[in-house]
Amino acid sequence: MNSQDTPHRAGRRALLRAGLTGAAALGTGLTLSATPASATPAGARPRPGTPDEALRELAAGNLRWRTYRERHPDESPAVRQALATGQHPFALVLGCIDSRVPPELVFDQGLGDLMTVRSGGEVLDEAVLGSVAYGVLELGIPLVLVLGHQSCGAVKAAVETDVSGAQLPAHIQYLADQIRPNIDRTKDGAARVDATIDANIRAIRSRIAAEPDLAAKVAAGELAVVGARYELTTQLVHRLS
Ligand SMILES: [Zn+2]
């Protein structure tokens, strides 16, 4: 699946590399002893309990999505009822607000599967950081995925106004201000926007991973904080190294 990456991204590890085997592993009845039985209501799938299992499930779901084989899991009446008494999402996705990149769709997941936090350009503020921390520390989610995407308008606006000096409307300017330090000035034009999308994902991933409470969980092997990018043209999610 690396063949679907554009050449300048050839060095990245594809999330989906694990996904092919992940789909098979899920089919053989992965046991998740760390997850309470209540998290697996009748008709629901086993819950990924480790960072690797969570990554494999997201990869498998993205494979279904981009090959038009979605299962639309965890929408049944039984699942809806079971979720009324609690939630045990297995991954937290911090994504952009872009209407073309809804996490539940591009990873083919359902109710109770993903905790999603979204802001323009995945920009962090106290509310976003608090939401991520809530998912990890209070709900025990083993994977935080920072999901940027091709043709991100927030990143494009930040790059363009950095060049032009133009001011954006009040709260939109905040987004640009947060993205600006991540601008890749080694490139120009559309290539600068594209490279900055990646640099922005990496910077946000690093910032989250450096939070002391989260870093301790990463060190203990209980949490992974991963950067990834969604390609609008191929619908592939691939991991950024
Ligand atoms: Zn965007």
Topology:
Layout: H1 15-27, H2 51-66, H3 77-83, E1 91-95, H4 103-106, E2 114-118, H5 126-138, E3 143-149, H6 153-164, H7 170-179, H8 189-209, H9 212-219, E4 224-230, E5 237-240
Parallel strand pairs: 1-2, 1-3, 3-4
Antiparallel strand pairs: 4-5
The structure holds zinc ion.
How much of the sequence is in beta strands? 5-15%
Total helices: the number is 9
CATH fourth-tier homologous superfamily: Carbonic anhydrase
- Spatial sequence of strands, sheet with the most strands: 2-1-3-4-5
Total domain units = 1
Structural class: alpha/beta
Helix share, percent = 40-55%
Assign an overall shape.
globular
Order of helices and strands: HHHEHEHEHHHHEE
Indicate the CATH class. Alpha Beta
Explain what this protein looks like in three dimensions.
The protein contains nine helices and five strands; from the N terminus they run H-H-H-E-H-E-H-E-H-H-H-H-E-E. It is an alpha/beta fold. The chain has a single domain (2-240), classed as Carbonic anhydrase (Beta-carbonic Anhydrase, Chain A, 3-Layer(aba) Sandwich), CATH 3.40.1050.10. Strands 2-1-3-4-5 form a five-stranded mixed beta sheet. Strand 1, helix 4 (103-106) and strand 2 (114-118) form a beta-alpha-beta unit. It binds zinc ion (ZN). Zinc ion is lined by residues 96, 98, 121, 149, 152-154. Zinc ion binds at residues 96, 98, 121, 149, 152-154.
